[in-house]
Specification:
The complex is a heterodimer. Chain A is mainly alpha-helical. Helix content of chain A is 76%, strand content 2%. Chain A contains 14 helices and two strands. The chains are: A mainly alpha, B mainly alpha. Chains A and B meet through helix 2, helix 4, helix 5, helix 6 and helix 8 of A and helix 1, helix 3, helix 4, helix 5 and helix 6 of B.
């Protein structure tokens, strides 16, 4: 075989291979992108569309227990039946409105306490040496990953009538009758603060760690008192962490189910409990879906805010 | 800078950490209490632990939870790593914003909403396609969705700091992009993958709300069994079980943390070597 022929063959082989290589080069990334996108689309995002659809359905005695929204009649007409009654019902039965307001109130005050407690904690961790930092962070992260259920149960061991707190206070003679903390609003607050504190500390630490402390020294050199420096410099610079941490506590706390169920009394009617009862107790799925959708609409703003600040944090 | 932290800050930090740990330590203490009355100390005993071994309901649930945990964390690490690569390496593609949203939203979305919507999806799918039946499969599918989010965030931050020069060198030497990634970057991010596997495992093992919604009759995970017991009040065998789970999760998290720290140190060492 002459050299020219060999070259020619090589070139032809290259030409034959090229379209495939070209195609892979241009579109190959979709093999990486598509699996997670499709999975989350189908099993995380689309379910919300189903909930929206079912919130417009009627209850029906069958499996699944709701009517079809889209139906095709024998003459091939497609019928769309939207039932707004479920949403209307949310406004007529005041338990929904009350539990929304109550959930938001509870989540809000818990977030404030978490912030007041978590900010100094995060600040103290951020100011220690690097090696102490990693130990302290692990100490905060450990409860972060431990299940809510078990931690709430553990808290019950402290605050119930015969729990450690009452036993200790009685023994010390500070009180003469056990304090009733379980099944009260206080217990719900304690539960949320206890459970969500690590969620506040971690994002706060992430921003405070990056803070340029020479700025604080500069402010002090220029005669600014510490509290003034804090308000003028530290707080504004740590705002992304404050917002990300607050959202990480506030949003899940609104929908909290385990804490009000195990620690709260009958008055602590949070929306998570209402939803659970509607679903498992009353088996009214369309109304439950409507509650979930309405709830979500309230949450879209805070969630968007969280997204905004968390991506900002990632970019920083 | 350690000397500049004020005593007030240190004491608040101490109080905060005490609040986080005292209930757990007390729980573990109670689990060794010989007395069945939770308020009375009846001496040291491991009888509640041996009793667990004879409780078939709890053993079955524990086995189911472990099986689910292994499948879920493996699936979530694969999907989450792909998502992290997509977000870090491909700066622009259609759906990037949607993917960012879908990996961040599960972190804040109240579980009860995720659980309800996923249940409605599964019910409708079963009605239309005849699949999936509620139980093991649906729990796995639902857990993978939220664990993927955590894996993506963890791997993403590691991938962002990973040095790409080795990968580029491999590609200059004729490796294809996939080969180059597998040979150079994958070993660098491997500890992040291992630690996110462990974290997914603990998340799946701990989940109560989503499992309760998407599970069917006959498939009760460990948290579901515990929840139904706890609703009835404090009981000593739950103390023992809870202590065991907390220790297992603790070991997983500590090991994950150790892996992350070791890679971080290795990265710093590499950076120092490179500067020389």
């Amino acid at each position: 075989m002459s050299e020219a022929a060999a070259q020619d063959r090589f070139a032809r082989a290259g030409a034959r291979g090229r379209p495939r290589a070209e195609w892979l080069k241009r579109h190959g990334k979709w093999f990486i992108i598509l699996p997670p996108v499709l999975y989350l689309l189908v099993f995380f995002l689309i379910p919300f569309a189903f909930a929206l659809m079912i919130s417009f359905a009627d209850t029906a005695v069958r499996i699944p227990p709701f009517s079809d929204i889209l139906s095709i009649s024998p003459d091939w007409h497609i019928h769309l039946t939207l039932n707004l009654g479920n949403f209307q019902y949310l406004f007529t039965d005041e338990v929904y409105g009350l539990s929304y307001v109550y959930s938001i109130k509870t989540a809000f005050f818990s977030t404030v306490v978490c912030l007041l407690l978590g900010y100094p904690m995060a600040y103290a961790i951020a100011r220690t040496s690097k090696s102490t930092q990693s130990v302290l962070l692990l100490v905060i992260i450990l409860p972060f990953w431990t299940s809510f259920l078990l931690r709430v149960y553990a808290l019950e061991g402290i605050i119930r009538e015969t729990g450690l707190l009452n036993t200790a206070l009685l023994w010390l003679g500070i009180i003469h009758h056990p304090l009733q903390i379980m099944r009260t609003t206080l217990a719900v607050y304690l539960g949320i603060i206890y459970s969500y504190l690590p969620f506040m500390v971690l994002p706060l630490f992430a921003t405070l760690e990056k803070l340029d402390y020479s700025l604080l020294e500069a402010a002090a050199d220029l005669g600014s008192p510490p509290w003034r420096t804090f308000i003028d410099v530290t707080l504004p610079l740590s705002m992304p962490g404050v917002i990300a941490g607050s959202m990480l506590v506030f949003i899940p706390a609104i929908g909290e189910f385990v804490i009000p169920t195990l620690l709260g009394g009958p008055d602590n009617l949070m929306i998570g409990r209402v939803l659970w009862d509607e679903f498992f107790g009353n088996r009214d799925w369309p109304v439950a879906s409507a509650v979930a959708i309405a709830f979500l609409v309230f949450l879209v703003g805070p969630i968007a805010l969280y997204q905004h600040y968390s991506t900002k944090q990632l970019e920083a | 800078m350690a000397d500049r932290v004020s005593p007030l800050l240190i004491s608040i930090l101490g109080i905060g950490i005490a609040i986080l740990y005292i209930p757990i330590l007390v729980l573990i203490g109670y689990s060794f209490n010989a007395s069945a009355l939770v308020s009375v100390w009846g001496g040291f005993s491991t009888s509640w632990y041996t009793q667990l071994l004879h409780n078939d309901q709890i053993l079955d649930a524990a086995w189911l939870s472990l099986e689910i945990g292994v499948v879920v964390s493996t699936g979530a690490v694969i999907l989450g790593t792909l998502a992290a690569i997509s977000l870090v390496r491909f700066k622009q593609f259609r759906g990037r914003l949607m993917l960012t949203g879908m990996v961040n939203a599960p972190l804040v979305m109240p579980e009860i909403i995720t659980g309800i919507t996923q249940l409605l999806l599964f019910i409708s799918m079963l009605h239309l396609l005849g699949w999936p039946h509620r139980g093991f499969t649906t729990i796995v599918i639902a857990h993978i969705a939220f664990c993927t989010a955590y894996v993506t965030i963890t791997v993403q931050s590691r991938l962002q700091t990973a040095d790409r020069s080795l990968e580029e060198a491999a590609m200059d030497l004729g490796s294809g992009p996939v080969r180059a990634f597998l040979d150079t970057t994958l070993p660098i991010i491997a500890p992040a993958l291992a630690s996110s596997w462990l974290l997914s495992f603990t998340l799946s093992l701990d989940d109560l709300v989503i499992s309760s919604f998407v599970s069917g009759p006959g498939a009760s995970t460990l948290p579901m069994v515990i929840f139904s017991k706890v609703k009835l009040g404090v009981s000593p065998d739950v103390n023992a079980l809870a202590s065991l789970i907390i220790c297992l999760v603790g070991v997983c998290v500590l090991f994950a943390g150790y892996l992350m720290r070791r890679t971080e140190r290795q990265r710093l060492l590499d950076a120092q070597m490179a500067e020389r």
